[in-house]
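FAQ

Q: What does a record look like?
A: Structure on top, sequence underneath. For example:
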């Protein structure tokens, strides 16, 4: 396992994981939107904006899982 959990209640752990995942999706989409709307470079290279959004979402999910879900 990546992170061990001290919580034995799987449902509450799942709810926390779901919240963090939704936050990651929100950061992913907002990053993509911001880059495309405010940068001509990313407007012309959408795949790079998608990659940047995915990286931002991934970092948010990792930190949220490490310090909130599986603490």
């Amino acid at each position: 396992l990546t992170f061990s959990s001290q919580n034995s209640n799987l449902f509450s752990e799942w709810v926390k994981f779901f919240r963090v995942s939704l936050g990651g999706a929100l950061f992913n989409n907002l990053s993509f939107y911001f880059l495309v709307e405010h940068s001509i470079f990313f407007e012309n290279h959408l795949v790079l904006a998608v990659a940047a959004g995915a990286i931002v979402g991934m970092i948010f999910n990792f930190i949220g899982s490490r310090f909130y879900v599986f603490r």
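Q: Is there anything notable about this one?
A: Helices lie at 10-38, 40-44, 46-69.
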